[in-house]
Amino acid sequence: MPGLAFFTGVGLYFLIDRYYRKTYGSVEPAGHAYGVEWILAAGFAILAVGAFIVDMRQWIPVSVFALIFALGLLVDFIRMIRLAGVRTAVLFPAGWLCIALMAASAFLPLLEESALGASGFRSAILLVYAVDGVITMVYGAAGHYYLVRSLAGAGKVDDE
User: Fold this and answer.
1) What is the rounded distance in angstroms from the CA atom of residue 103 to the CA atom of residue 96?
2) Domain-wise residue ranges, the chain
3) How would you class 127 by CB atoms within 10 Å of its CB: exposed for 0-12, middle for 13-18, buried for 19 or more?
4) Would you place residue 130 in the very low, low, confident or very high pLDDT band (cuts 50, 70, 90)?
5) Dihedral of alpha carbons 56, 101, 75, 17, sign
6) Would you list the DSSP string of 45-64?
7) What is the pLDDT, as a whole number, of residue 153?
8) What is the DSSP letter of 111?
9) Dihedral in degrees, nearest 10, Cα atoms 126, 132, 135, 141
10) 160 by DSSP, 3-state: which?
11) 3-state helix/strand/coil string of 132-157
């Protein structure tokens, strides 16, 4: 299943990327922004692997990975708002809600075992990861909906 999910995700990435390029065109980040993206991505990747190890070792009863993932979404959200020159961060409330829910999901392992058993998961961490997967999909769908409503299609932008 993980291999199938991986290849499905890769395929969907290319289809979605093709859709956005065809519909909205291509946007290339400025040189300094591109470098910052790589540094942030590498930093968060290292943090995520470390957090995953902490979660798998179950050293603490809270999902560090969910907290790191929520922090990554928050940092990226704020960075994108600043790059877009937006003065208010309330334009995308679904983003804020998903980030808050992901951070809150980190505390699901604190639930009693009987509550976790009712969910059908044998491990609280697996429940957190499943919930975070759903939240990530909702975040992506909400982001897509927001972009489709906010952006003009390629060729529809007035040069003035």
Assistant:
1) 11
2) 33-150
3) buried
4) confident
5) positive
6) HHHHHHHHHHHHHT-SSS-H
7) 54
8) S
9) -100
10) coil
11) HHHHHHHHHHHHHHHHHHHCCCCCCC
Pair of tokens at residue 11:
């395929």
Q: What confidence tens digit (pLDDT) does each residue in 74-121 have?
A: 888 887 777 666 666 566 788 889 999 999 999 988 876 666 666 777
**How far apart, in Å, are the Cα atoms of 27 and each of 18, 24, 35, 75, 101?**
13, 9, 15, 20, 30
Q: What is the pLDDT of residues 31-82, one digit of tens each?
A: 666 677 788 888 888 998 898 899 888 888 899 999 999 998 888 888 777 7
Is residue 92 within a helix (H) or strand (E), and if so which, with residue range? none
